[in-house]
Specification:
Number of strands: 0
Radius of gyration: 21 Å
Oligomer: single chain
Shape: rod-shaped
Strand content: under 5%
Helix content: 55-70%
Distance between the termini: 12 Å
Number of helices: 2
Number of domains: 1
Structural class: mainly alpha
Largest sheet: none
Length: 91
C-alpha cells in the first residue's frame, strides 16, 4: 500500500524541482553578470562562493531524482487501483 505521507512528500518534491531549476538559473545569471560590474567594489570571494552555491543548487535536483529512484526500487510503484479497498492498513 502506498504511504500517503510519503506520496504527498514526493509530489511536493516534484513541485520543488521547478524551484530548484529557477534557483540554478538565477544563480548562473548572477554569476555570469560578474564581468558587467568590474568597476564596482566586489569582494574576491564572490566568484568562489558563487560557484559553490551553483554547484550545491545543481546537486539538489540530482539528489531529489536519486531519492525518487530509490523509492521506486525499494518500495515499488504506487498502486491506486485497489487503494479504496484497503484504506485501513491496520487490519
Amino acid at each position: 500500500m502506498p504511504d500517503p505521507k510519503m506520496r504527498n512528500l514526493e509530489y511536493a518534491l516534484y513541485a520543488l524541482l521547478v524551484v530548484y531549476l529557477f534557483k540554478i538559473y538565477d544563480s548562473a545569471l548572477i554569476l555570469g553578470s560578474f564581468s558587467e560590474y568590474e568597476e564596482h567594489v566586489i569582494p574576491a570571494t564572490f566568484k568562489p562562493i558563487g560557484i559553490l552555491t551553483l554547484v550545491l543548487y545543481c546537486s539538489l535536483p540530482l539528489f531529489t531524482l536519486i531519492s525518487f529512484i530509490h523509492r521506486k526500487r525499494y518500495i515499488g510503484q504506487y498502486n491506486f487501483e485497489n487503494y479504496n479497498d484497503n484504506l485501513n492498513i491496520w487490519q
